[in-house]
Amino acid sequence: MKQSRGAYAAQGACGIALGLFGWAVALLAAQGLFNGLLYPLVDAHDYQHSWGGPTLVGAWVVHAAVAVPVAVAALGVLRGMVAVDRANEQTLSGRRRRWWPLPLSALVAVSLVLFFRSWLHQV
């Protein structure tokens, strides 16, 4: 079955949105994991007011204990984005009709734009 130009454009837009979202999730998870596992090298300051303080070891353990599950959850999110991209491709190529991939991709795109907008305004 031949796709129309609109279907190609929709598939491309969904792919771009999901790809950008995947990059954002991967970069934020990598930064969190890096900061959590290498906490003493990244953040050397007064540990009295840090999570897990007042000692360096306590702060390091708490930051790593938060960072590792967040990174594992990010892998799950990335796997979900791959599943949504495959469902988009199947829907737009006409092999399978599903109603949810396009609205979910649009929701992801809007949430990504809102996230980056709020992130830029905090700086």
Q: Would you mind describing this structure in some detail?
A:
With 123 residues, the chain is mostly helical. The protein has one domain (5-121). The protein has four helices and no strands. It has helices at 5-37, 39-42, 56-93, 101-122. Helix 1 (5-37) runs antiparallel to helix 3 (56-93), helix 1 (5-37) packs across helix 4 (101-122) and helix 3 runs antiparallel to helix 4 (101-122).
Number of helices: 4
The helical percent reads over 70%
| H-E string | HHHH
Shape estimate = elongated
Using the CA coordinates, give the radius of gyration. 20 Å
Q: How far do the termini sit from each other?
A: 49 Å
Q: Please describe the biggest sheet, giving its number of strands, its sense, and whether it closes into a barrel.
A: none
Mean pLDDT across the residues is 83
Uncertain spans: none
Structural class: mainly alpha
Total domain modules: 1
DSSP summary, beta strand count: 0
Strand content: under 5%
